[in-house]
Amino acid sequence: MGKTSLMTRILARAQAQNERTVYLDLSTVERSIISDLDKLLRWFCVMVGRQLQLKNQLQEYWDTEILGSNDNCTVYFEEYLLAQFETPLVLGIDNADRLFPYVEVVEDCLGMLRSWHEKGKISPRWKQLRLVLAHSTECYIPLDMNQSPFNAGVPVELQEFDSQQVYTLARLQGLNWTAFEVRDFMQIVGGHPYLVGLGLYEVGTGKMSLDQLLQKASTEEGIYSHHLRRHLEVLQQSSDLTQAYKKVVESSVPLALDPMQIYKLHSMGLVQQSDNSVMPRCNMYREYFSRVLSV
Fold this sequence. Notes:
By secondary structure, the chain is mostly helical. It has three domains: 3-151, 2-Layer Sandwich (Barnase, Chain D), CATH 3.30.370; 163-216, no CATH class; 229-292, Arc Repressor Mutant, subunit A. Helices cover 52% and strands 9% of the residues. The protein contains 15 helices and six strands. Strands 1-2-3 form a three-stranded parallel β-sheet, with helices on both faces. The longest helix is centred in the middle third of the chain and has 17 residues, at 103-119. The two termini are 29 Å apart. The mean pLDDT is 89.
């Protein structure tokens, strides 16, 4: 949906205001590190320090005999990393959902970030830290509302492009599309930023025509095949959710589902809501999942 692009713009704005910025992408962290809380938080401290051009002082601050990993990480930030500067630090953590599969790690790590947010309400030093977390909504984790950082601060849910925005983007790609061509394109992919951007790029660079894109969009040969298979893999992890979505794509009218099924399918971006009912987010999803879920 463009989460990384949005975070990049946020950090660029912070830099323009003479604030320090750090960008961490959790998708690049090795499994052996991200699945171990102590290793992850050590990595976290080292990477932030490196981007701030500070010397690694973990040996001096990390007390394994008395303090736990969360406390050690918090002390390192409070007494060392945040103490080196008077200007705010904007810390962007991208792909935070990479933590979600690791139950032993995710609660403690995200709970620590939430505690830092709370500290910022009363501590001048912690007030200097501004956290920006980007995460996919495709994964679900049962977090205590008082531990989750996702119900604190300001949530930003990325919206779809409208037809005028798609028309403008097409022009920027050198495509002199009519309103009818924009309509045909959006009937297949909707206003989903990733799907729109990929489609405009492929057509704009001459790799295919709009007609070819539309004809192959929902097929294994189309440019969206990887995106579609990834959603299929997530769906197939739950037979109940698979059957629920099969009913949605086969229905010609919005369909009422269990509230949790609606929440999960909407979080995955597979449906659009109409009151208490849902329908496929775009025709490409209807065509593709009608075929693969009927096998």
